[in-house]
Design a protein that fits this description.
The protein has helices at about 5-20, 20-30, 30-65, 65-70, 75-85, 90-100, 115-120, 125-140, 145-150, 155-160, 170-195, 215-220, 235-245, 280-295, 315-330, 335-345, and strands at about 75, 105, 110-115, 205, 225-230, 250-255, 270-275, 300-305, 350-355, 365-370. The chain has about 375 residues and is α/β, with parallel strands linked by helices. Strand 7 (about 270-275), helix 14 and strand 8 (about 300-305) form a beta-alpha-beta unit.
Length: about 375
């Protein structure tokens, strides 16, 4: 027998029936005290319905290189149409759409220039790389219900990230995601390094370090700190080549392997930058345990990634990363308290969150191994 509904549940039911009523909606849209709320909710609902179109406007701007073109200065509609190789009216459609999304701004005399969001994009090539990458995600989400029911079959994202399915890939197969990780990881490296103190570290190992973008940022700030990159053999090989070209082969050692076989010892600081959320609970817990085993007494683990339940950015963790990782076929976004509990289960004596500049992009947990 079902338990009787609580007072709160009954109130929510009444509220939902009221808000769903077309008669109430018309009244709320006209009443001075509720008009602002009604219009805000209408806009929010429409934005949810139209979000894909907004994303495709951004994709068109990126593929046409609009932001770089306008970084040189405002241009007329006719000049932009020629540069973009678009009919004038289609160029006008794109530019007005981009202006409505605060990517560009309309200026007098039929000219257009960059707005704040478009200007920010020109300084973050990783964002453009992610925009292009989203074509795979959109294809996988074409039928979200089938995906949720586990009936979608192999997804494009699972093929793009072969390690998600436990597939051993060669250098050619890892090249696309290695480059994407490098471009996007550079965006958050400074946020992580601004939040942690590495002055007492004697040797840092970045696990799942991709092609070395994070360690390259560490090397720039900490000139004498020994560094090791650990990733799958094919990825570590590409990282070694890339870092050699950057003149860092003497500073950064690249080691290939799988954390399932244990992590190499020798580092007193281990970093996991956007790695744990890629793994289901069992492998994620095994990764944290492997990090604990590899660290000496008193060693430090730094875990940085976007997290579920981030105040003011809940859709980023729970909606975007929730569905991205679902399509990828591995991992899930976790809340800070979940990760801290997993770290304690792995054997760490303490685990606390350290504030970052932009928690929407990454939050950070520092865990310490017992000194004994």
């Amino acid at each position: 027998m079902a338990a009787p509904a609580s007072l709160r549940d009954r109130w929510l039911g009444w509220r939902n029936r009221l808000v769903a009523s077309p008669r109430f909606q018309r009244w709320a849209a006209g009443f001075p005290l509720t008009r602002g709320i009604a219009r805000k909710n209408t806009r929010a609902l429409f934005d949810l319905c139209a979000g894909f179109v907004y994303a495709q406007v951004l994709t068109a701007c990126v593929r046409l290189d609009l932001f770089r073109i306008l970084s040189e200065g405002p241009l007329t509609l006719d000049a932009l149409a020629r540069r973009l190789d678009l009919p004038v009216e289609n160029a006008r459609c794109l530019l007005r759409a981009a202006a409505s999304l605060d990517l560009v701004q309309a200026l007098p005399e039929d000219r257009f220039g960059l707005a704040d969001l478009g200007a920010a994009l020109t300084g973050n090539p990783g964002i453009a790389a992610m925009v292009e990458h989203h074509a795979l995600l959109y294809a996988d989400l074409a039928d979200p219900v089938t995906l949720l029911r586990g009936q979608a079959g192999p997804t494009r994202l699972a093929g793009y990230w072969p390690y998600a399915g436990g597939v051993s890939a060669d250098a050619a197969a890892v090249a696309p995601y290695g480059g994407l990780m490098g471009a996007s990881q550079a965006m958050i490296a400074d946020d992580v390094l601004d939040a942690v103190d590495l002055s007492r570290s004697r040797h840092l190992m970045d696990v799942g370090g991709g092609e070395g973008a994070f360690l390259q940022a560490v090397a720039a700030r900490h000139k004498t700190l020994p560094l090791t990159l650990f990733d799958l053999p094919a990825v570590a090989g590409r990282a070694a080549d890339r870092l050699a070209q950057a003149g860092l082969s003497e500073r950064i050692a690249c080691r290939g392997g799988s954390f399932h076989d244990g992590l190499p010892a020798g580092a007193d600081t281990i970093t996991l930058i956007r790695i744990v959320h890629d793994h289901d609970d069992g492998p994620a817990q095994a990764l944290l345990a492997a990090a604990h085993a590899a660290l000496p007494p008193g060693g430090t683990l730094i875990l940085a990634e976007p997290m579920a339940g981030t105040p003011g950015a809940e859709p980023v963790g729970d909606a975007y990363f929730g569905f991205y990782l679902l399509a990828m076929g591995s991992g899930r976004p976790r809340r800070s308290e979940e990760l801290r509990a997993m770290l304690r289960t792995a054997g760490f004596a303490t685990a606390y969150e350290q504030k970052t500049r932009r928690p929407l992009l990454t939050r950070l947990i520092v865990a310490q191994k017992d000194v004994r």
